[in-house]
């Protein structure tokens, strides 16, 4: 349809990006044995070993750009896109001229629909190497996605002239016909439609966002677009419209996990309202509820996290259903806490500790709840903090504890997906290390007679010591009176 990608092309875009990352890695020689061993472990499918080797290597050699690149590829294969970006960026900070890391970063950003950030990387690659085919393709796809038709036409003209007769030239010829047709019609790109909808959704203007999401879905159908439309309709309270969009998402991609979870929640809500919502087959989920909620929290998708909790912990459990485990209850509390439902979060954490009294993460979470509710002494007790010294503000260490605890929770969630993530130092040690230093001790001036020798003390150049008190005289024993001889 004009300059737009076909649904099949868009669905394979992320797979292609990952392929580029892995193929790009092959051109980076491992200069040290740990890197070569990590690459072999990755190719053999032993990702846990590869991650550990790379993390251990980077702990000693933090400026090894090739190790950062390899670790970025490993994270990308795990779906940890944020971590992958950080590793590619770290590689470029050390070696800005490392083209494969720049190409991998640009392709990853494009796969995430972040073409505005990807374009400068493609342009840098092409300024250094104008013949670089992967950069030519990536730049043009981003310009089309953003609706930058004049720039796309200029790139087409330059590319067709430079690569005439090659495989890339053939690809450009087909793509550029679509670009020129779209430029003449002045139509919006589907990427622009998505961007408008996302911006409005972020402002909680759900009805306006739904208009743009629906337009993008009609232009280029995909399960992700149908899901975004469903979420916008859910924001307006249109449960039936939300259900319709979710069904459309599953029609386009039968195992779209976010749509499956959302449909379960919406179906239950419709049944409660008497609108005959359909029964959902929960066997189609490919993740446990705990992993799904943890992933949503890591991604910052609170809307999905709420739906997952509702689906996993219904108000009226089915007859014969197994009671929820401690981890699931704890995650439900974390979702409620992030949602501002502090009292509700406290209830979830109480239930967690009834199931597993020794669950340390839930106890620390209760300290967070108590702090939010202003119950400072209770929060200190739950956090295991001693009474603060006189020089420290009464709540300074408790506030620091809460900040560290939330960072610790994120780290714990990350460890569930990344086998190479190392455990952090204990929370108490972190808080103690970050407390402000005590104020310097003020020396008091000596009293006026401090220099005079103390009576009865020994002198001779050393500080006079006070004389020892005289021993008390022992009472004399009374002599027995002797009688006359």
Tell me what the structure shows.
It is built from 24 helices and no strands. The chain is mostly helical. The longest helix is centred in the last third of the chain and has 22 residues. The N terminus and C terminus are likely disordered.
Please describe the topology of this protein:
Layout: H1 7-11, H2 13-25, H3 33-43, H4 47-60, H5 65-77, H6 81-94, H7 99-111, H8 115-128, H9 133-145, H10 149-162, H11 167-185, H12 190-202, H13 206-219, H14 223-235, H15 239-252, H16 257-273, H17 289-298, H18 302-312, H19 326-338, H20 342-355, H21 360-372, H22 376-383, H23 396-417, H24 427-434
Q: Let me know the number of strands.
A: 0
Helical content stands at: 55-70%
Q: Which fold name fills CATH's third level, the topology of the largest domain? A: Serine Threonine Protein Phosphatase 5, Tetratricopeptide repeat
Strand content: under 5%
Number of helices: 24
Overall radius of gyration: 34 Å
Global outline? globular
């Amino acid at each position: 349809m004009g300059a737009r990608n076909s649904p099949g092309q868009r669905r394979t875009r992320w797979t292609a990006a990952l392929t580029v990352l892995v193929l790009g890695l092959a051109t980076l020689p491992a200069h040290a044995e740990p890197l070569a061993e990590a690459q072999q472990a990755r190719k053999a499918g032993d990702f846990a070993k590869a991650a550990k080797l790379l993390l251990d290597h980077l702990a000693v050699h933090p400026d090894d750009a090739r190790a950062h690149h390899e670790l970025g590829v490993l994270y990308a294969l795990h779906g940890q896109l944020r971590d992958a970006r950080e590793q590619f960026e770290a590689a470029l900070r050390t070696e800005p001229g490392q083209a494969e890391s720049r190409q991998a970063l640009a392709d990853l950003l494009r796969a995430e629909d972040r073409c505005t950030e990807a374009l400068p990387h493609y342009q840098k690659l092409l300024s250094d190497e104008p013949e670089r085919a992967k950069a030519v393709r990536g730049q043009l796809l981003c310009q089309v996605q953003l609706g930058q038709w004049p720039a796309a036409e200029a790139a087409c003209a330059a590319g067709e002239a430079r690569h005439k007769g090659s495989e890339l030239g053939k690809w450009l010829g087909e793509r550029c016909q679509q670009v020129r047709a779209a430029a003449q019609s002045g139509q919006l790109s589907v990427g622009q439609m998505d961007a408008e909808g996302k911006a409005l959704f972020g402002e909680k203007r759900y009805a306006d966002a739904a208009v743009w999401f629906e337009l993008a879905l009609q232009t280029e159908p995909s399960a992700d677009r149908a899901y975004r439309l469903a979420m916008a309709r859910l924001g307006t309270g249109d449960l039936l419209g939300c259900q319709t969009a979710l069904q459309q998402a599953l029609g386009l991609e039968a195992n779209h996990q976010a749509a499956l979870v959302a449909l379960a929640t919406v179906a239950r809500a419709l049944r409660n309202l008497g609108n005959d919502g359909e029964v959902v087959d929960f066997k189609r989920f490919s993740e446990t509820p705990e992993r799904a909620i943890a992933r949503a929290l890591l991604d910052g998708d609170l809307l999905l996290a709420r739906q997952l909790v509702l689906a996993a912990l219904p108000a009226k459990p089915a007859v014969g259903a197994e009671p929820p485990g401690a981890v699931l209850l704890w995650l439900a509390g974390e979702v409620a806490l992030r949602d501002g439902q502090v009292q509700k979060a406290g209830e979830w954490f109480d239930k967690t500790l009834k199931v597993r009294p020794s669950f340390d993460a839930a106890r620390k979470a209760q300290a967070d709840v108590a702090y939010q509710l202003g119950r400072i002494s209770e929060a200190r007790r739950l956090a295991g903090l001693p009474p603060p010294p006189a020089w420290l503000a009464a709540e300074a260490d408790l506030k620091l504890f809460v900040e560290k605890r939330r960072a610790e929770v994120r780290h714990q969630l990350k460890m569930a997906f990344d086998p190479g993530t190392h455990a952090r130092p204990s929370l108490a040690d972190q808080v103690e290390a970050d407390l402000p230093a005590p104020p310097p001790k003020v020396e008091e001036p000596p009293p006026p007679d401090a220099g005079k020798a103390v009576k009865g003390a020994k002198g001779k150049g050393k500080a006079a010591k006070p004389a020892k008190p005289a021993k008390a005289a022992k009472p004399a024993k009374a002599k027995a009176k002797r009688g006359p001889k």
